[in-house]
Amino acid sequence: MTIIAQTTYSAAELSGIILLTLQVTLCAIFFAILFGMPLGIALALGRFTGRRIVVAIVGITFVSQSAGSSLEEDVYLWMELENMYLRAKQCSLLKNGLPCTRQPL
Questions:
Q1: Sequence-separated (6 or more) residues with CB below 8 Å from residue 100
Q2: Is it the case that residue 22 has pLDDT exceeding 50?
Q3: Cα distance between residue 36 and residue 60, in whole Å
Q4: For 58-69, how does the pLDDT look when each residue is reduced to its tens digit (9 = 90+)?
Q5: Whose CA is closest to 59, among 82, 42, 30, 41?
Q6: To 5 degrees, how large is the angle CA 35–CA 37–CA 41?
């Protein structure tokens, strides 16, 4: 049995809700541009100790928000993706034409 609550709002309450939603959205966009853009550029172009860990953590946040998965699953996924990337990189660096193996690195 599903119970659905029905609520009616006056025009003034509805416009207040919409205005608050727009204010929160604009604040989020402002801070994303102010902090997110420079940090994203620094992460993409910079080379520093621990960069791989930071990239993995940033990537995990995207995966966990969209898929609703647990942190353990996200860490496993990123470890597997990193292994796949390293294997592909290793295969592309082979110059003598030997086939690539499917064994983990």
A1: 87, 90, 91, 94
A2: yes
A3: 16
A4: 877 776 655 555
A5: 82
A6: 120
**How confident is the model at residue 79, as a pLDDT?**
77
Angle among Cα 9, 14, 20 to the nearest 5 degrees reads 140
| Whether the Cβ atoms of residue 91 and residue 85 lie closer than 8 Å to each other | no
How much of the chain exceeds pLDDT 70, in percent? 67
Report d(CA 82, CA 104) in Å as an integer: 11
Could you give phi then psi for residue 38, rounded to 5 degrees? Answer: -65, -40
Token pair belonging to 87: 């294997």
18: phi then psi, degrees, rounded to nearest 5? -65, -40
**What one-letter code names the amino acid at 24?**
V
Q: H/E element holding 45?
A: helix 37-45
Tokens coding 80: 């597997």
